[in-house]
Design goal:
CATH topology of the largest domain: GMP Synthetase, Chain A, domain 3
Number of strands: 5
Distance between the termini: 73 Å
Number of helices: 4
Largest sheet: 3 strands, mixed
Order of helices and strands: HHEEHEEEH
Strand order of the largest sheet: 1-2-5
CATH architecture of the largest domain: 2-Layer Sandwich
CATH class of the largest domain: Alpha Beta
Shape: elongated
């Protein structure tokens, strides 16, 4: 919810920017998450671009948002009329699901165990003759 508010606010603040269309297109394809660090009172927005976006897209987004933040006279993030501290993290890393990875490689483990058992059985048969 807060991530969507930030994204909408950035689109509004970038109305007269040169590469606005690219920014809007890229932002539309991204997942925007929000985390609040209560200890330091910092609002953090994590913009996760899909894997089809490259480093040039990440750098474009970082530069574009920095230009918008530098040029505006109003706060980007505010609460009850007071400007709030915030940080933005751009990433295109895909979090690996450990459970899915283990499930997909489970058959490899069972095959390895069966192979070890077969080798052990053959060794015992050789020793018994």
């Amino acid at each position: 919810m807060m991530g969507d508010v930030w994204a909408q606010r950035m689109v509004e603040l970038s109305k007269r920017r040169k590469d606005r269309e690219r920014f809007v297109r890229t932002l539309a394809g991204a997942e925007v998450r929000y985390v609040f660090d209560g200890a330091r009172e910092v609002n953090t927005f994590i913009i996760n671009l899909p894997s089809n976006f490259g480093n040039d897209d990440l750098e474009f987004m970082r530069a574009f948002v920095a230009k918008v933040n530098k040029s505006i006279k109003v706060p980007v993030v505010e609460y009850e009329g007071r400007e709030q501290r915030f940080s933005i993290i751009f990433t295109s890393d895909v979090e690996e699901d450990d459970y899915s990875w283990r499930r997909s490689h489970r058959r490899d483990y069972y095959d390895w165990v069966e192979e070890q058992a077969r080798k052990e059985k053959e060794e015992k048969e050789k020793q018994s003759f």
